[in-house]
Amino acid sequence: MRRRTIFTALVAAALLLSVGVQLPATEREKSAPLETGAEAEDPAGEPRSSGPAMERTVRAPAVAWRTWSMHMLEVAEKLDRPIFLYLTNPWNTMGRIMDANTFSDPRVWATLRDLYIPVRVDVDRRPDIKERFNAGALPSIAIVMPSGESLYLKSPKGSYIRAAGSVLPAGELYNYLRSVADYYRDNRSILDLKIEDIVRRFKRDQNLFSAPLDYAVVRTVANALRERFDRTYSGFGLDPKVPDAQTLLFCWQLVRLQGDPQARDLGLRTLRAIWDSPLHDEVEGGVFRIAMERDWTKPRYEKVLDVNARLLEAMAEGLLVTGERWLERAVREQANFLIERFAHPQGGFMRAQGSGDAFGSYFQLSRRKRRKVEPPPIFPLRIVSWNAHAATALLRAYQATGEERYRDEALGILEFLLGTSKAGSRGMAHYFDERAQMVGLLTDQVSTARALLDAYQVTGNPLYLLEASSLVTAVRTFYRDETTPTFVDRFQDPRLRGAMRRPDRDLIENAEFALVMLDLSALTGNNMLVGEAQQTLEMFADQVDSYGTYAAPLARAVNHALRRPVRLVVRKGGQHEQALALARQAARMRHRWVVVDWFDARASVVRVDPDERALLEQSEGAAALLVDGRERIGPLSSAEDIQQVAGAWLPRTPSAESGASFHAGVEKPRAERPTPQTRPARSRP
Predict the structure, then answer these.
(1) Closest CA to 250 of 29, 508, 584, 442
(2) Rounded to an integer, what is the distance from CA 475 to the centroid of its chain?
(3) Checking DSSP bridges between strand 83-88 and strand 117-122, what pairing results, if any?
(4) In this structure, are residues 538 and 213 in contact, taking their beta carbons and an 8 Å threshold?
(5) Which one of 20, 133, 644, 666 counts the least CB within 10 Å of its CB?
(6) Relative orientation angle of helices 325-342 and 404-420, to the nearest 10 degrees
(7) Strand pairing of 164-165 and 140-144?
(8) 456, 464 in Cβ contact below 8 A?
(9) CA distances for 683 relative to 79, 147, 575, 644, angstroms
(10) Maximum C-alpha span of the chain
(11) Per-residue pLDDT reduced to its tens digit, 556-598
């Protein structure tokens, strides 16, 4: 019996290694949001359809899929079976191939029925589950214990590896399932103890240590960009290639704040490579989610809202800081695509368009031939964080192009989110499917707060600032980590078990929330937010070397945390359009971090000080004031005035003057003057 047990373990481990497994959890493993609404989810995909060219998900008819829930864990514990966790989403082409070919095999579905608890998760609805159990690219497979922890198998070398895999043909999956089931049965008595030990070591390895903030963080990530840049085909890394908006935004920040010419070159070359490659659909617009080859070819032909929205933001920011004429055409095309392809007839934007078939045949047709066939389906679920990213991107496109349609569409998205998906003190739900569901994810609070702050700066509507402040309060109240000055990915629920109970402190979400707190502090004068943002960033600064370009959001946040913001205070004065034009000019200002605040003498709360108010009221119409600490310039009555004064007044950092690439020179704070000083705007030539 002992020999058989050892042999079975070795066979199972070898099979797992052959199909691709993941080593015990690294810092990329994350945690989960509330179980709210989980029982109501359709495990196979979209529960209903509406809008243009939509369809239900093809599901494997033989597998009795369960949803992830507390009841599912109880059933697994009662039957003493491992959980077969299948992570996918309805628009994923490879997932649909698995449905059609792998899970329809009688050997596979019979084994799942008799030896496992088969659970299917739509990862768009449950990103918390994906981040804890995903073994790589989607679709993904994980084997989970009834306790809710990943099952670990002993490899031939004696180490333990996660029981996980990816796309498998029916025969390989059948052998895999039988081997893992045998291993589970024969080693049941020691598995729980061994997994407890692995989890204990995992928690120990996840400890964070604070490090002081300085520009070394920015330099480290900037150097990683330079080292990873593909000088043959552009982009960062080799293959597969993705439209990495976070990295591009960091490039543009280096250009905006430091005038870095190399960052400008790498950012423009990457955007041009994407736009000229098969990743970009020249016929209908938008980009596909990933290119499997280094030269941006062999795309996976799905168009995802989040990917396209974030790329639009990076493109619009690139246009603002470089002024490249071809980028304006590209920004307009991308913004129009988002609106025309993803807008839901009942409000908000839908999540994705599928590929149609495994080869994306539709997208390889000419415009004339596409008119004769049915386009691939669009999946109507509206995800809050992805919609917020779309709102931010469209607002940035409005600032870059002046196209009011983009601003209005963005404000329409925010109106939809606030009207349908706000869920009390915990903030926003995660998705809307006839009702708001999955309350309690950090990503939805941060992305919506970001979009609301952007909307306030664009429009001057104080309700957006109020709603953003409310979400920041919710995050600081319900999502704060118990042991470190960071924020966890979900509202903690004591009923959760296993990996779902462990809090996750994601670098990107914490960095983006730090940026939100810094902007909100600059707009409201709440200096406590600055301290909290800096403490949060300090907890990740020590690990920046290991993150590489993934730490681009961290570097962006540090770059702001170490600088003093310049406020552009705008007074409407009854001339709404002129005031909006003044506010738009802030997006084009260089070498400093600029936020747009608004003054309305009729408002119940006026945040500007008496000196600022006196200067603004010197002008009868719309006017603006540049405020840097105690120094004020204004009133300025036109965008040209702002541009002229800012060009002469705002200082250039040492790196911009010397032209040194990827060097974040320390910007020394300007000495505070003992008394307020003002300078009038220069007259236009």
Answers:
(1) 508
(2) 17
(3) parallel
(4) yes
(5) 666
(6) 40
(7) antiparallel
(8) yes
(9) 81, 72, 20, 9
(10) 93
(11) 999 999 998 989 998 877 778 888 988 998 888 888 889 999 9
